[in-house]
Amino acid sequence: MLDYEKEADVYDASRGGEARAEAAARAVLDLLPGNTGRLLDVACGTGTVTRRLAAARPGLRVTGADLTPAMVRRASARLPGAVVRADSRRLPFPDGTFDAVTAIWLLHLLDDPDDLDAVVAECARVLRPGGVYVTTVDKAAAHDVGSDMDAVLADRPRRPAADAPDAVAAHAARLGLVPAGHGSFAGIGQGRSPRATVADLRRGWFTLLPPGERRTEEFAARLARLPDQDRPRPDPRFRLRAFRRAAPAGALGNPARGSGD
């Protein structure tokens, strides 16, 4: 896994920056009821999406939480007084604190099924009855855009997707969260070029291809032979799923149902 303490310095620039953050925030907000009051953004990173969520609706009170100190410092500069350092498996909030909880680009990092269950359980715990939980799913698959690079990397070793939609839905169901909508957004600026992907390989981006190993260098060599080394291939498209914590009918209204999938 990447060292996110080091990644904080380059995170925004290497992952689409403000354009991607705007697309993500807009898609998330489409899945939240208009009268949402308090929102927790879990694993908020540098706060680019969190800030846009906070600015989008008057009266929406947003809290960000992240475990990595460097990420927390950057997010805090964007949202002073509204960001806490916290482990997403043990959130420091009472039960039922928030009307909405978001977790964008988090679940795919959790290789241990117990960690995945703990994170979703904590998100459900701090969500009030009738509240909505929104998360990205199947992040790795979003990067398979049918390009020549995907063909080169097709036989690379892969972990089972921790954030596979069916797995996330099963965890949610066990915790009393029911499906409440779906959506998607473009990872603007994240289309990969061969040269940049070789660099990512050599810094540990692909977790089952450690830097310096023979297979890693074999994939790097194959990528280096592709044409248009600096031309980004199409942007990925990330998927969202929303779940509602069971509550009496009409307690918070129904979230919008996206149709971008």
Compact summary:
The protein is an alpha/beta fold and 261 residues long. It has helices at 4-7, 11-14, 17-29, 48-56, 69-78, 113-125, 139-142, 148-153, 165-174, 194-202, 214-224, and strands spanning 38-42, 61-66, 83-85, 98-103, 127-137, 177-186, 237-245.
Walk me through this protein's architecture.
This protein is an alpha/beta fold and 261 residues long. The protein has a single domain (4-143, 159-191, 235-245), classed as 3-Layer(aba) Sandwich (Rossmann fold), CATH 3.40.50.150. It contains 11 helices and 7 strands. α5 links the parallel β2 (61-66) and β3 (83-85). It is globular, with a radius of gyration of 18 Å. The chain starts with a helix and ends in a 16-residue tail after the last strand.
